[in-house]
Amino acid sequence: MHDTSFMGYFVPKDAQVFVNAYVIGRDPDVWPEELTLFKRERFVGSKTDYKGRNYELIPFGVGRRMCAGVPLAHRMLHLTLGMLLHNLIGHLMQMLLEKLWIGRTS
């Protein structure tokens, strides 16, 4: 590492630089809408990567110090949806079979 300048600021060698995620998440240039309201539709169809590659949305951190739970959350989401669909389809199939076989005895 060596001394450098970033956006007109001098950054000495071995300096610690912190990202202010609170301010980035409330930048009116990036988020022109009301920031105090939760609007899930603002993310529908968005190409914003929440994994830390786009710096306007970094709630889980970035790089090596990223939240360790993100990969677990992805796995759990897929597992939960799979179990939900499996149980729902299994229940519907059982109801369908019962409806087809009602009154039929050997």
From TrEMBL:
Which terms does the record give in the GO molecular function aspect? heme binding; iron ion binding; monooxygenase activity; oxidoreductase activity, acting on paired donors, with incorporation or reduction of molecular oxygen
Q: Which InterPro entries match?
A: Cyt_P450, Cyt_P450_CS, Cyt_P450_sf
Q: What are the UniProt keywords, alphabetically?
A: Heme, Iron, Metal-binding, Monooxygenase, Oxidoreductase
Known Pfam families for this protein? p450
- Protein family membership: Belongs to the cytochrome P450 family.
What is the name of this protein? Cytochrome P450 76A2-like
Q: Whose protein is this, by species? A: Pyrus ussuriensis x Pyrus communis
